[in-house]
Each structure stands twice: as structure tokens, then as C-alpha cells.
Amino acid sequence: MTKKKIIVFTGAGISAESGIKTFRDSGGLWEEYKVEDVATPEAWENDPAMVLSFYNKRRKQVMEAQPNTAHHALVELEKKFDVHIITQNIDDLHERAGSKKVMHLHGEIIKSRSSVDPDLTYMIKGWEINIGEKCVKGSQLRPHIVWFGESVPQMEDAGNLAAKADIFIIVGTSLNVYPAAGLVDFVPHNTPKYLIDPQAVSKDYISNITVKKEKAGIGVPELVKKLLI
Ligand code: APR
After folding, report:
1. Where in the chain is the domain with CATH 3.30.1600.10?
2. Using one digit for the tens of pLDDT, what is the confidence trace for 100-117?
3. Which atom of ligand 1 is nearest to the CA of 25?
4. Is the pLDDT assigned to residue 174 strictly greater than 90?
5. What is the dihedral of CA 191, 16, 11, 124, to 10 degrees?
């Protein structure tokens, strides 16, 4: 029997209880930094050292963090379902918890990439990329991150997956950043959908949705338990 497909769409909120700051909550990263100073192609052009330093700090934090009960609970779902995680997060906490199929829409902090050839990526040794570190083609290495103003190369694959969802679960995202936030539009109308987020506001525009105003660490294990019965 083929397993039902569960697509889980995650944002910064799922890693909040691992100690990684979200972006738009009070005290979030975009209060401390200006997006245009650190997360755009223009920032990279103007001040690559500043951009590298911003992401080096993020990388160090991610390497020191551990997956939490929400990441672990999603792994349990694989016992009964074909689970695909589509994450906006650049951390590797889903993989370290043990999730097998993880797509990173906004890139991966643990990798660097050539600034002239987007297909040339490397695992970073340690926690830093420094000025002067180059790809085989001789260009400065940049973080393997999708910046504001850049396209999201995996969006089409993500949409195709979402269109096949038997169950669609959204965890810890403000659904503010497009095109990622539009993923839900690809999910069939009658597919049951769940949203777990303590700040969840009315999502009337999403059909067939159950909203759980809970932290991921509580809401995700509860939902997983229910789905595994
Ligand atoms: N459990 C679940 N959700 C939580 C928790 C928690 N413990 N703590 C906070 N949240 C929720 C907030 O209520 C909010 O809705 O997480 C969400 C975080 O929203 P954002 O900070 O906007 O993060 P996200 O939606 O992932 O941002 C999308 O924006 O800056 C870019 O590229 C970056 O991928 C990121 C994208």
C-alpha cells in the first residue's frame, strides 16, 4: 500500500525553542539588523565582510543548537507516512533530528557557494567563511543563502510536491515572505491543512484549515500523535 503524503512547511518558529531567533517576532533578527544591510545582493556588493560576519554568527549559533521536540516528532511521522519537509529555514535541525526528505527553499547555512556559479556549493569546514576564500573558479565564496531580491530556485519543485499533499502542515511561519508563503496555494482545496503557531492570526483564505495556537514544541507532538493513531 502506498503511504499517504504529508508535506510539512516550516519557518523560523519551529527552531525558536532550539534557541534560534525568528525574524519578525519582537526581539527578532530584523529588529537588530536591516535586511538591506545583510541579506541582499546589494549588501554583498557593498560590504561582503559585513555580510559574511552576519552569516558567520548565524552559523555558529546553529552549530551550537540542537533539534527540539517538534523536529523530533516530525521524524516519527515517517513510520506511517511519506513525509516531505519544505523549510524556509537555513538551519539543519530537521536533518539532525533525522528527517529524510528536506527541501531548503532559502538555502543552507552550513554550505558556501561560488559567487559566479550557483551550482558550485561546498560544505563549510568550521563556522566561518572569510574574505579571500575562493571557489575553484577563483571567485569569493558567499553563503549558500537565497537573499531578498533573488529567485527561489526550488519553488517549482516545492509547488509540485505541495500539489500532491494528502495532508499539509504549516509550522512557525508568519507567511509574510513570497514566493514561499504562496506554497499553500498549490495544495488541493480538500486536503486537510493544519497551522501550528502561537501568533497564528485568522487564515480564512486557506481552505480546510485547523489552526492550533501553540508553540511548535507542544503543538507538533500533539498533532503527530493524533495522525499516528
Ligand atoms: N513555535 C511555533 N511558532 C513560533 C514559535 C514557537 N515556539 N515562536 C515564534 N513562532 C512563530 C511566530 O509567531 C511567527 O509567526 O514563528 C513565526 C516566525 O515568523 P518570521 O520571523 O517571519 O519567520 P519566517 O516566516 O520563517 O520568515 C520567512 O523571512 O527573513 C526571511 O529568509 C527569511 O526564511 C525567512 C523568511
Report:
1. 21-64+108-145
2. 999 999 999 999 999 999
3. 21
4. yes
5. -130
